[in-house]
Amino acid sequence: GGPRPRRPPGPKPEPVPTAAPCPQRCRRAGTLQSNFCSSDFVLTGTVKSVSRGPPQEPGWAVLSVLGVFKAQAALGLPQPAKGSSMRLQLPCRLCPSLKKGSSYVLMGRLGADGAALLPPDAFVVPYRPQQQQVLGNLSKRPCRGSP
């Protein structure tokens, strides 16, 4: 056999845009106290499922709510919210990192459509029972304008 015909190189596929750009490093900043007022909602919950869809679409986490400390009405949660399920949109596929069955303190944003969002810079920490009192105290204090 003779030499095989070579195909001309085709155009390189464009990278698929993600729902929201992810930072180089997923890192939370600050403390429970410093993030409480700047967040649209604050709650504690146990992750029931996490789905990271196709790259161009946001992922979702479904939580079983343990407690809500800010924006219960805006999230459309019943009173008491404990035990109810809630969906959180995850614009970044990489972070925050959530594990099924683990409990977290979650501080995030409300999207224009009212959906609860956990952006890459959301304050998310593993939940410990002693945080319940700290969060309860923070929820009683009025939040002033951003420092």
Automatic annotation (TrEMBL):
Signal peptide per UniProt: none
Keywords (A to Z) from UniProt: Disulfide bond, Secreted
Biased composition (Pro residues): 10-20
UniProt domain NTR: residue ranges: 22-143
Entry annotated with the keyword Lyase: no
Domain of life: Eukaryota
InterPro entries found in the cross-reference section: Netrin_domain (IPR001134), Netrin_module_non-TIMP (IPR018933), TIMP-like_OB-fold (IPR008993)
GO cellular component: extracellular region
Annotated segments matching region Disordered: 1-24
Subcellular localization(s) per the UniProt record: Secreted
Coiled coil residues, start to end: none
Name of the protein: PCOC1 endopeptidase
Organism: Pheucticus melanocephalus (Black-headed grosbeak)
Taxonomic lineage: Eukaryota, Metazoa, Chordata, Craniata, Vertebrata
